[in-house]
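At this stage, I put together a protein sequence along with its fold in C-alpha cell form, as given directly below:
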Amino acid sequence: MYFYTLLTPLLLLPSFSTAIDILLPLYLYPGKEASAWSNIFSTISTHPSVQFQVVINPNSGPGTTSDLTDENHIAGISKLNSFPKVTTLGYVLTGYGQRDNALVNADVDVYASWTADLRIDGIYFDEVSNDKTQQNYDRMEILSKHARESIEGAWVVFNPGYRAPEPLFAFCDMMVEFEHPLEDYQAEGILEQIPGEFMGKSAVQIIETPEGTDVEGLMVEMEQKGLGAVFFGEDCCYKVWNKELLEKMADAA
C-alpha cells in the first residue's frame, strides 16, 4: 500500500504504510472467565488501530448445539466483540473435500444462531482442498455462498495451508497461502509465489517461530509486498501464546 507525501510542488515520493491485519487462530481454551486469553485482550486493547481477525474454535468447530453454553467461551467471545477492530471468525472444518457439505453448513448455521453479544462476523474454512478441479471450485463456491447467506456481511477465509488454485480466490475474502514453519517460509520464497493481484487477499500463518526472529523486519517486507494478513505462532498448534511475540506483531502492523 502506497501513500504519497508532497515534498515540493513537482516532487512526489512514495512511503510505505505498515497496515497488515493480524490473523489470529485462537484455539486455546479460554480458561476461567477467559483468563487464558488475557494476553490477547491486552495486546488488542493497547493497539487500537490494528485490525485483528480472530478465529474462534470451541470444539474443532462450534460444537453440536446452537446454544453456546460454556461460560468461559461466552466471557471470552463477548470481550473480543467489545473491541471495534476485531473481526471474529467461526472455525469450520472442510476435510480437504471429504467432509459432507451438509455437516459443513450445519456448523455455519450454529455460529449464525449465536446471540448478538456472541456474534460471529464470518467463517474460517480450514482444510480447504487445493485440488485444481471444477468439482473443488464448485464445492467451495457453494459453501462460501451459504456462509454469506447465513451471516450478514460474512467475512470468508479459506485455509488450504499452501498455495491455492487461483479460481478459489473468487469465493473468499482472504486465503491462507502458507501455514508452515518459518524456515520453510524463508526457504521457499512464498511471497514471490503469490500473484500480485491476489496478494492483498492472501495471508501467511507461520508456526514454530524461533526465539529472536526479526518479526518486525519480516512484517515490513510482507506489507511492502502488499500481503493482507499474517500470524507468527510459537508452537505448531496455536496453543502457546507468547505475549512478547503478540506485541511484536501488533507493533509492526
Notes: Confidence is low (pLDDT under 50) at residues 1-18. The CA atoms of residues 122 and 155 lie 4 Å apart. The longest helix spans residues 134-150. The two ends are 13 Å apart (CA to CA).
